[in-house]
Amino acid sequence: MNNILENRTWRYATKKFDSTKKVSDKDLELLLEATRLSSSSYGLQPYHVFIITDQAIKEKLKPVSWGQSQITDASHLIIFANQTNFGGELVDDYLNNLSKVRNVPLENLKGYSDFAKSKIVDLPEEVKTNWTAKQVYIALGNLMQAAAELKIDTCPMEGFEPEKYNEILGLIEKGLNASVALPIGYRSDEDETQHYAKVRKSKEELFTYI
């Protein structure tokens, strides 16, 4: 089987992690770099990623995560937090970085700056929040696939109370909102769901050629 498909077949939403196994620093850095390199609309990456290793914080988050054991048993808990509101500084910060990395005079980027700002700066706050939350999932998918290639287990989770996460992690004052949680680590031998056959729509149901 092609490695791409093999890795996707191997991975599943891990329900029980082996709390004695930890992701190495080297592998964690690979996962984070894969996340950093993810694409995003306009290249803006309107989110921040928190890597939780503090067991005490995990314990605080578990009750507001529907009591799910993945929160405390996983090696690391990755929290993706999308920006809830922003102005032109989001574009300015990106273009300042682009100017340095590509050695392009900032004034040469004014056209792109004006275009990007015209599309996103004046959007209603709710629309901005929905847009930035969508950007999170692009990075999430890249992290999950990189983890599968390293045979590191993951479990994407929306089953938590975002407002409580925001409070515990101090996100509100940072203009952020907890969008999705991703425990990473290694599956427990006791997790029976690892043996379940994948249930997906057939190709005929899912795909239409036009």
Automatic annotation (TrEMBL):
Its cofactor is FMN. Gene3D superfamilies: NADH Oxidase. Residues 10-186 form the Nitroreductase domain. Keywords: Flavoprotein, FMN, NADP, Oxidoreductase. It comes from the Bacteria. CDD domains: NfsB-like. Belongs to the nitroreductase family. This is NAD(P)H-dependent oxidoreductase. It comes from Croceitalea rosinachiae.
